[in-house]
């Protein structure tokens, strides 16, 4: 610094003071924005409006990107900043909405309420002001008492036990009570509920686990059963907490989940199984790894850090899922001939064919994965 001319140092100090002043203005503007968000929260809370408004957010991002281009700034840079701002805004709104009940005074019974997912939703409903009762496997002698006067019965047990538990609890339910389940398959549980309970029925599938700290943009699939109007308050409650509601038939849900859950988890299991069988030096490979490899390994490690029983239930839940996985294994084995021949041309032909099938999603996948890779680089 001693070699820098005195006049230059003075100019640099003045410039830094100006930057500091601008930074303070930015923080002040963010505070003003937050106050405005709180006014929006109050209005939404009064009218039970959902936290997440996709069209509004995407319109805002597009407008800010255009503004950035006009100002000579990188649109991606401005978008990233606003994604963070909007995320914080949604989380703040969701936090306020957590204490708001769509149906004040209603009573909720969670069958399986002593399990992780059951306790998770017990906390959410309790936080919103509902009267919540939890029922475990040792409470069947009190089933009639626990079901008395309830407005919602939420079944939160393992997939294999769900139909039996539904049939067992149904005779105790008030006729007006909504009966819902939380399993990752919908066809069998939904039919069991329709057969056992003459009142309102809806199937729910939260695509997240009990470690989720916020429901902001978490997906909950809702499959109609009976009397949608009577079930609406339950779905609206999840939406009010910030969840994205995806409506689907039971048949469509189960077919898509074969690939989204069963195939994805099984393929990850098989990859981890192969690494373990080969005794691959995991820690050492990470030292050589690109960010994308580390991201992939993170997903593999994440699977094996969780409950084996949970994933067994998901993967082997139905004969249809098992049949699809057999097709997958046969499909992989078809590549043996290509490998034995070293058929690069055959590989490239297959690659191009599949790339054409993926279509525009390929570009979207590059953008999204590049964002994740950049975030991973920032952290590690």
Helix percent reads: 55-70%
Strand content: 5-15%
- Reading side by side through the largest sheet, how are the strands ordered? 2-1-3-4-5-6-7
What is the number of beta strands? 7
Distance between the termini: 32 Å
Mean pLDDT: 90
Structural class: alpha/beta
Element order: H for helix, E for strand: HHHEHEHEHEHEEHEHHHHHHHH
| Low-pLDDT ranges | none
Task: Considering the chains and any ligands shown, give keywords for the structure.
380 residues; alpha/beta; Chorismate Mutase Domain, subunit A; Rossmann fold; 6-phosphogluconate dehydrogenase C-terminal fold
What's the SSE blueprint?
Layout lengths: L5 H42 L6 H17 L4 H23 L9 E5 L4 H12 L3 E5 L7 H5 L4 E4 L6 H8 L8 E4 L5 H10 L4 E6 L12 E8 L1 H13 L3 E4 L2 H28 L4 H6 L3 H14 L3 H8 L3 H15 L2 H6 L2 H15 L2 H19 L1
Parallel strand pairs: 1-2, 1-3, 3-4, 4-5, 6-7
Antiparallel strand pairs: 5-6
Explain this structure to me?
The protein is α/β, with parallel strands linked by helices and 380 residues long. The chain folds into 3 domains: 90 residues, Chorismate Mutase Domain, subunit A (Up-down Bundle), CATH 1.20.59; 141 residues, NAD(P)-binding Rossmann-like Domain (Rossmann fold), CATH 3.40.50; 127 residues, 6-phosphogluconate dehydrogenase C-terminal fold (Orthogonal Bundle), CATH 1.10.3660.10. The protein is built from 16 helices and 7 strands. The chain has a 7-stranded mixed β-sheet with strand order 2-1-3-4-5-6-7, with helices on both faces. The longest helix is centred in the first third of the chain and has 42 residues. The chain is globular and about 85 Å long.
